[in-house]
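Quick one: structure tokens for this chain, please?
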Amino acid sequence: MLPTFQTNLREVREKIIAIGEDLVKSNELILEALKDCDAEKFSKARNYIKNITSRTDEIDNAIIKILALYTPEARDLRQVVAYFKITNEIARACSNTRSFIRGFSDVCGELDVDTINEYALPMQTSTVKAIKTSIAMISIDDADELQEMYEDVLIEENKADDLYEMIERKLVSQAENSAKSFETYHKMLRALRKSEKIAGRAISVANLLVYIKIGGHLHN
């Protein structure tokens, strides 16, 4: 392909990485905020993922322009298509992050410290690791290294999923024997579910990056 194609594609990749790194920073701050339900840190975490729609729209428009100008084929086409889908996955992860901040910051003080330490903190830790690794994969070209990193993301996503199931069972049990309204517990679970979904977006990104390198089938 023409050098201009590679230049434009590199610019798209750099913009995707920039949004991904902001997503990581946001979730790292959430992890800190969870330790003592720090409203200020929750607010700062939200600031990292502002204006995501305009940023992702800019990337999408650049990708459409690349497709129109260069009509890439084979691996180049896989890469362009995958970047288009990766941008969408990161945008959805940012949306899940905003929802988590909005929902959990309101009820964080209602959740006992032991439950936060035993379930919420480890779950968010796994979510952060999954996102961080998947974003780091964007800069990796070696197929074996990509596969190893994919497995790391998968492990963390599974951990987040398992921890959500455990905290869901515990909160449902507490709700049945508590004077607190069920709505309070429902809000907690709805917010925590967003954290687990963020890890799910990370594995989707990782899958797409492996697809760029070795091909195969795209999975949602």
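Residues 3-36 form the longest helix (34 residues).
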